[in-house]
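Researcher: We're teaching a course module on how sequence relates to structure. For the next exercise, students receive a sequence and then see the predicted structure as tokens, so they can try to spot secondary structure elements on their own. Here is the exercise chain.
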Amino acid sequence: MQKLWLLFVFAYENIAPMNTLEHIRIGLGLTYEGLGAKIGVKRHVAWDHCRTDAIPAEAAIRYSAALGIPLEQLRPDLPPPVVGTSPTPPSCPAEVGA
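Model: And here is the predicted structure for the students to work with:
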């Protein structure tokens, strides 16, 4: 039974190769549920992010902030964030004349 399990794991890893986020998740000892909780997404979404070639930009920014890892590690194609700015827009527009 153990040989069958090892064969399955080997075959699965070759079908769905790990990306940088998956390596980071394993290194931090996080489950997919724990990783998803860091940015407010469900387990299956975190699993998808760990298996895709390009993590969605918004998710990459949130993982970078939550895990303290450089954004360019997750998405080298994105420009680096400007220091002193928020990665997400404000929740409500500023009042005119306030």
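Model: If you want an answer key for the exercise: Helices lie at 2-15, 20-28, 32-39, 43-51, 57-67, 71-74. DSSP finds six helices and no strands in the chain.
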